[in-house]
Write a structure and sequence with these properties.
Blueprint: H1 2-31, E1 55-59, E2 68-72, E3 75-79, H2 87-96, E4 101-106, H3 112-115, H4 118-124, E5 126-131, H5 140-151, E6 156-157, E7 164-167, E8 170-176, E9 193-198, E10 201-205, H6 211-219, E11 228-230, H7 242-248, E12 252-255, H8 268-277, E13 280-283, H9 284-287, E14 289-294, E15 299-304
Parallel strand pairs: 3-4, 4-5, 5-6, 10-11, 11-12, 12-13
Antiparallel strand pairs: 1-2, 1-14, 2-3, 7-8, 8-9, 9-10, 14-15
């Protein structure tokens, strides 16, 4: 009987040791981006990309604001336009690169540091569809955006969570806002949140969403896990909560933020949170324009720091 008890104890210890090994391997896989760990990315099979497919995102250095140009297979989507001072910059950039048509313009929300420069883009390029969480807003910059859309016979479309659009080989899903009543306390919390899938890589854009909107989309049950996170609200402490980052699990993050801004963005508390999740965190205030490219499997980055 003693021998049987001893053997049973050994089996218990062996099982416990095996469990500990599996847990340790899981942590190592997640921290080191090891391929094949089933809970790091969506288990859904990635779409097969054409051999000549291309994908890039230019995160423009527009000071304390947001502006990014997504390209996929020669198709373009502009997400936000920075402050009105950057209208000329966007006009010149599109002209220099021969981008005369934007398939989509996304105005994440109506605040001036996101909508301000979009009229410059519309002065040069035509647009297929324009999205914003609201169709009217009492500001000169927003009214200018609406005016230049109207000159092209276009109106703002308000996306519904779950709606999808295509940009070449990329699939774009609108994630938020899911609760428009959050605007009563903070307009940032009705920012458009969208997720781009390209091959096995994915990108989450969050506008200026703060904790309340992050919680609402996390609770909605939608897919949030993304390879890259465009950090919300310029790295504010009121965004990028632990709950949200746990759901997104970003490998990389990009913060669009002005150098020596009056808001002390990005906040140290936000940077500490991001450091626990990301391999690399890029910032327009220190890295300048950031170009991210994907081959459908991995991401590469180029930066152009200001002297």
């Amino acid at each position: 009987m003693r021998k049987k008890k001893k053997q049973g104890s050994l089996l218990v210890y062996a099982a416990a040791a095996l469990v500990m090994i599996v847990i340790a391997l899981g942590i190592w896989y997640i921290q080191n981006d090891a391929p094949g760990w089933p809970f790091h990315e969506s288990s859904a099979p990635a779409e097969v990309l054409p051999e000549d497919s291309t994908f890039s995102i230019h995160f423009f250095d527009v000071g304390e604001g947001d502006a990014a140009l997504v390209e996929c297979d020669g198709r373009y989507m502009l997400i936000d336009g920075g402050l009105p001072d950057y209208s000329d910059f966007l006009y010149a950039y599109l002209e220099q690169h021969g981008i005369g048509h934007l398939d989509y313009i996304i105005c994440s929300h109506a605040h001036i540091d996101h909508v301000g420069g979009l009229s410059g883009a519309l002065n040069y390029a035509t647009v297929g569809e324009a999205y914003c969480p609201v169709t009217s807003y009492d500001s000169r910059s927003f009214n200018s955006f609406v005016k230049y859309l109207a000159r092209q016979g276009k109106e703002i479309k308000v996306p519904v969570p779950g709606d999808t659009i295509r940009l070449g080989s990329a699939l774009i899903t609108f994630i938020g806002p899911v609760d428009m009543t959050l605007a009563a306390e903070e307009e940032n919390n009705i920012s458009i949140i969208l997720r781009i899938e390209y091959g096995e890589t994915s990108f989450l854009f969050t506008g200026d969403a703060e904790a309340a909107e992050e919680e609402s989309v996390t609770s909605s049950g939608q897919a949030l896990q993304s390879t890259l996170l465009k950090v919300a609200h310029h790295g504010s402490f009121s965004s990028s909560t632990e709950q949200f980052l746990t759901a997104v699990k970003p490998r990389y993050a990009v913060i669009s933020v002005g150098r020596d801004n009056e808001f002390d963005h990005p906040h140290n508390v936000c940077l500490r949170r991001l450091d626990r999740y990301c391999k690399e965190v890029y910032r327009t205030d220190t890295d300048g324009e950031i170009i991210c490219r994907s081959d459908g499997h991995t991401l590469t980055f180029e930066t152009a720091p200001k002297e």
